[in-house]
TrEMBL record:
This is Chromosome 18 open reading frame 32. GO terms for cellular component: endoplasmic reticulum; lipid droplet. PANTHER family: UPF0729 PROTEIN C18ORF32. The lineage of its organism: Eukaryota, Metazoa, Chordata, Craniata, Vertebrata. Residues 45-76 are annotated as: Disordered. May activate the NF-kappa-B signaling pathway.
Amino acid sequence: MVCIPCIVIPILLWVYKKFLEPYIYPLISPFVSRMWPRKALRETNDKNKGKVDCKGTDINGLPTKGSTEISDKKKD
């Protein structure tokens, strides 16, 4: 069986999205845009961005410096 909220919530969201949002959104959009102003995304021309130095790593990209011993034995 499916619980009642699992049926009712998607139906209410569909009703809101289909019928109520076209009327309500134009009323609340000025307030929302004041709270969350859009900022322009800036593209950087940094060519070194995204490159990673892989020295000192194993095949999985994990660092090999330090203790890499993994023990499955339980220590008291």
